[in-house]
Design brief:
The structure is a homodimer of 336-residue chains.
Chain A lengths: L4 H8 L3 H9 L6 H14 L5 H8 L4 E6 L5 H16 L3 E6 L4 H11 L3 E6 L17 E5 L9 E6 H14 L4 E7 L6 H11 L4 E7 L4 H6 L1 H6 L4 E4 L2 H13 L9 E3 L5 H5 L6 E3 L2 H13 L9 E5 L1 E3 L21
Parallel strand pairs in A: 1-2, 1-3, 3-4, 4-5, 5-11, 6-7, 6-8, 8-9
Antiparallel strand pairs in A: 10-12
The structure holds a DNA duplex (16 and 16 nucleotides).
Chain lengths: 336, 336
DNA sequence: CTGAAAGCGCTTACAG
DNA sequence: CTGAAAGCGCTTACAG
């Protein structure tokens, strides 16, 4: 049997109102009374009931987070930053995965209603109709996923800038034919960034190599295809694919970066320690999360939504040879 | 203004009781009435209030999960498996970090009371007094962390078995002096497993090299120390440290495994694609999570707690040379 | 098959 | 500074 405020109040010889005031803040209480209530609560191991509180206050401290698919560093780093920032804002994080169908998603969000008042999407299915979520009494925020409408808050990663920079770096390092190994969901401007860099340098040839997945195994599997293309520079949509290719190149006696320069995307830690250390593009994780949490914190301006784009940042390491002078091989300069 | 059951009932011209029966299951309702209620609910976009429901039913569908520190693959793989299994069991996952003090932890769990009835710890501070959590109306389950008392359910990783196997494999491959690079929290039997293997082979010498951290940078930093020790085999408490050492060895012209055989712990994906691919020890992640979720699912046997130990599993790859025959370099045999 | 009523445990005006 | 009462939105016996 749960210990309620009423029981504590009886024990302390005061009214429920007074006990509540002492234990959950609010209103003035005389020192002696307060002490008596506190002692009674401790003696009985009183534990307030969050469900009742939420019901009464029509508010709660929980934010739902729909996590991305997959199991790689970026996703988890983002989730961890989110959880930390939400906690600092006094919020708890309720974890969910994006269901396979729109109906399941709506059912899930319905279940969350009453204890979560915000949902942050870090995953989205472009086949879903985002507008249908507007009827739910829960505010949706999109992080690095575009629902295709500005009726939601959107904090989007602008990949084109970083990709353009990395391709230009490959070209500066001497690459004359550049391959782009692009995943199916090659989103957020990776293709645009690549194409824009190539257009800027008419003498450079380019080839796009589509990939079904974005994992180590995919980069490894496409190794033959990449080498056959005759490219002397290659950009992968993920660091994982790039490191899978490292393995393939090694097994086939191809030297990186002497024979082919390599770059990835995501700034995963293993790339910084790979041999050679992997050039990559870093996400604006902190900035995006900060904006999302800001919406949660001052979430009262109903109807007004915000769309912001955050640029990505090039990190050049040994896998792109810089002609200035030979880089001392050490991972300490990686910026991680 | 929220649409309540009462409003839907009015709209449909029935009582609250009947509307509830239609929309949330339970009791028999005539087909025509049910249809009328459903239409009204759809028209009004009725959304049930979870807080009210939880309050009334004195139950909820949320399980708290205290995540581990750090930001590496193992932690996130475990969390992901947990979230998936809990969801399959009809539960939502509430994420939290382990606070710095016992008081903060207790305050946090108090806040969770009323919407979470279980907490799964995948992180723990040995300085905390676990017994004090018993007074909270929330059941605690420990995963791969030992609170030091069998008053809680505990599902623990038995690291000694896997470490013993990996050391014996290093010895079989020809290593005569083996270094153990051990993190501060070298827990769960890593030291015992190492020592037991060494004791079994009196001719083999051993050296323990303590490390403050368990990251890439720590393995890199200790490279000089390891080489100076004269070891021709080295076991790291984490794959990350091992891969950091790869980098150091490369920079100093040391060949792996010809000059020094290497093994790690955790079975991170990058190790499977490293050059040479890294031998390691895999965690019993699925098994542990399954048991924890089982407790949540049939969580009524109050007072009776369970302690189970799960063995770890050796994965030999190229970083330990096997004298049978030269291994074809390909990451496909890695068992990932 | 359906309705009127009580109550989950808390908070919030409203009186005194 | 303190108390009696209403009510958040749902579910659960209890009648009919």
């Amino acid at each position: 049997m749960a210990i309620t405020l009423k029981i504590v109040a009886n024990e302390a010889g005061v009214s429920v109102r007074t006990a509540g005031r002492v234990l959950r803040g609010g209103g003035p209480v005389s020192g002696v009374t307060a002490e008596r209530v506190r002692k009674a609560a401790a003696r009985l191991s009183y534990v307030p009931n969050a469900a009742a509180r939420n019901l009464r206050r029509r508010s709660c401290r929980i934010v739902g987070v729909i996590t991305s698919d997959g199991n790689h560093e970026l996703i988890h780093t983002r989730l961890r930053i989110l959880e930390r920032c939400l906690r600092e804002a006094g919020r708890d994080t309720l974890l969910g995965s994006l269901p396979g169908t729109q109906e399941e998603l709506e059912r899930m969000l319905l279940e969350w209603t009453g204890f979560a008042d915000f949902v942050i999407f870090t995953n989205w299915n472009p086949d879903f109709c985002a507008e249908r979520l507007l009827k739910l009494p829960i505010r949706c925020i999109f992080l690095d996923r575009d629902p295709g409408t500005d009726k939601f808050d959107r904090f989007l990663t602008e990949r084109a800038s970083g990709v353009r920079e990395v391709i230009l770096a490959l070209i500066r390092s001497g690459a004359g034919k550049i391959a782009h190994v692009s995943g199916i969901g090659s989103s957020g401007g990776r293709i645009e960034g690549f194409d824009s860099a190539i257009r800027a340098k008419p003498k450079v040839r380019a080839v796009r190599i589509p990939s079904k997945g974005s994992e180590f195994a995919d980069g490894y599997r496409l190794g033959a295809r990449i080498l056959r293309s005759g490219a002397d520079g290659v950009f992968f949509d993920t660091d994982r694919m790039a490191l899978g290719f490292y393995r393939y190149a090694h097994e086939h006696g191809i030297r990186i970066p002497e024979q082919i320069a390599v770059a990835g995307f995501d700034n995963d830690t293993p790339g910084a320690y790979a041999i050679p250390s992997l050039s990559t593009v870093a996400h604006p994780l902190e900035e995006e999360v900060r904006e999302a949490v800001r919406i949660v914190t001052n979430g009262d301006r109903k109807g007004k939504t915000k769309t912001l784009y955050f640029p990505t940042k090039l990190i050049v390491r040994e896998s792109i040879p810089m002609n200035v002078k030979p880089i001392k091989p050490s991972p300490t300069f990686t910026g991680k």
